Amino acid sequence: MSQDSLVYKVASAPHEFLQINHLNYQTFVKEIPQHKENEIGQLVDKFHDENTYIIAKNHDQIIGMIAVRSNRPFSLDHKLHNLDEYIPSESVPCEVRLLSVKEEYRSTRVFYGLCKRLVQFCLEKGYNLALISGTVRQLKLYNRIGFKPFASLVGEDSARFQPMYLTKANFERSTKAFERLMLAASNHHEVNTVTHSFLPGPVSLHPEVENAFRKPPVSHRNSSLIQQLKEIQSTLCDLTKANHSEIVVGTGTLTNDMVAQQLKRLNGEGLILANGEFGYRLIDHANRSGLTYRTIEKQWGEEITLSEIQWALSTYSPKWIWTVHCETSTGYLYDLEGILSLTKEYEAELCVDACSSVGIVPVNFQDVYLASTVSGKGIGSYPGLGIIFHRDKIFSHPSIPRYLDLGLYAEKESIPFTHSSNLIGALKEALKNLEKNDHTDLSHCVRDIFKDWKLCPMGDDTYSPGIITIELPPGSSSSRVGDECKKKGVLLSYESDYLLKRNWIQLALMGYHRHEEVMKALTVLKGVLAPFKEIRYV
């Protein structure tokens, strides 16, 4: 997190108040048990209409807040009947409540920034004293800011608070020492904080996806979750032109095992295409499932032509073809439309591993027999959900293990077993935000920058915009480059065995990426690459 990305302001927009209610719930229901839980995961404060909310935002996400109100009686009036006896005379007080900072930001300057904006707001309104009930968990921090304790503790045993007040003079006396303390803490924090991730999974997430995931979980038998899942299935089918979709708890590996189980029920041998890590994994899936098949195998990134596929179809008459769409190890993108046309001509079924293409490039699965993808790559949500598209209705079969039986999911509306409402909610939000993920233009921009640096990204415009692969020359080390970038907060894909073996680094432009953040991350990468003088564009 960069301090430049933080904004401190008075909340005004409807979406900000929704986030405030959610943060209020997370803090004062889940973390500090002052209120009862509810299904919506929102807590509207009893003084909401009187409150002014000072918020800290990291881009679109609210990460901290303080509520200010001046109307008497204060909440402390109900806990201390002689409140006025404790505060200095001639005070013009306001009450500060609902102080909350998200856990991952509590070791940063966010709390200080909120207090600084609070003091500014109070002075603008003519208040010269701010009252607060400070949680006993953070008394040292309050003291460092300049809050002064008074009276005895209030609240229930499970949530004890210390009445305190802050004046402008106290804040100014404490601020220099506090700034030094928090600057040291934030510098340490930022060294170990991820500033940008180019991983193909988990991918960078839109803040609204993160917010959806944090809602309290509900039962997979809950009617609202069932309806939500149906809506997601409909959205997925609209996105891919598929006839049916099923959502399972698992990864792309699981969905491909499920596809393999369906292929076992088609009589006759198949054909598997492989020119990279994930094509060869399909071969492994087939072996473990006892499928009979032939292959077209090429070197990694080498083209498998339609004429080669047509020759195999005409020579061997396979009943099915199984291929990846985007080969994640290189970014190679198969001509899915051309392959589908051939399978129709030769009366074969087409199955597609589309884990790295759905959400990145347009797809049409209307006539595809089976296709698989996941929640945590191109769609831009958390990993943990697998998605299988099918052209025809599928029914359960007793020969297939229960968890791998796609027909069982279809018959049970995708909920034969326990589902995760958190992952479902995040997936729904990610699908709503897909149009905000501008992969193609961003990919062209990044590729052009690499060429300016005399680097040669693998492939051309026919490759997926979601994966940019760079082979580093002899004398350089993908491991060293990746490690150094990680130390500086930029995560590259380089730690997989197949990447280390080939001295490759990858930038996955999947999920939610802000253009300016990508440019900052590339500046870091450029500095790491600078010592390798032998890198040349060819």
UniProtKB/TrEMBL annotation:
Cofactor: pyridoxal 5'-phosphate
Domain N-acetyltransferase intervals: 6-169
KW Transferase (keyword) present: yes
InterPro entries reported in the protein's UniProt record: Acyl_CoA_acyltransferase, Aminotrans_V_dom, GNAT_dom, PyrdxlP-dep_Trfase, PyrdxlP-dep_Trfase_major, PyrdxlP-dep_Trfase_small
Gene3D superfamilies, sorted: 3.40.630.30, Aspartate Aminotransferase, domain 1, Type I PLP-dependent aspartate aminotransferase-like (Major domain)
Source taxon at top rank: Bacteria
UniProt KW keywords: Aminotransferase, Pyridoxal phosphate, Transferase
GO terms for MF: transaminase activity
Pfam families in alphabetical order: Acetyltransf_5 (PF13444), Aminotran_5 (PF00266)
Coiled coil: none
The protein's name in its UniProt record: Aminotransferase class V-fold PLP-dependent enzyme
Species: Rossellomorea oryzaecorticis
